Amino acid sequence: MKHFGCTLSFSDMRDNALLAAYRKLTHQCRFILNFEIAEAIVNSPAPRFWVSEERATAVISLLLRGKPALARMRPTKREMFSEILRRVRIARTNSPGKPLSYIVNDIIHSPAPKFYMAPSSALDRIFKLRKANRNERLQRHPTNPR
After folding, report:
1. What confidence category does residue 8 fall into, taking pLDDT thresholds of 50, 70 and 90?
2. Which residues does 21 contact at the CB level (< 8 Å), separation at least 6?
3. How far apart are the first and last CA of the chain?
């Protein structure tokens, strides 16, 4: 588990993907209903699985050995690791000699069917990003006082 304040190496990529999905969906809507948009965002395809190589390999290794690694996870994470495990099993039959870490690495960097986040988490993240972008624009282009 990551420690409080730890930033993930892919967080910028995830944030950009979330914002892109948000913009795409809001441009298609006549009315923006935040929770419906958030549901659509988290269920839209993602460019990759949002988990580190180390964590994914550790969890998948436990699962392959029959350990109950998913028992205490949130439902979205449980679903994500179940999908990764399903893909690992397929990849292992196709490449039996390939090390598990290589297989997992290939899988988590491939497109994911969804973001595997809670809609409220996605909305919180999007609103923080939009506020940061707005503040950055204001600092770059301050309004002239009259």
Report:
1. low
2. 40, 41, 44, 115
3. 52
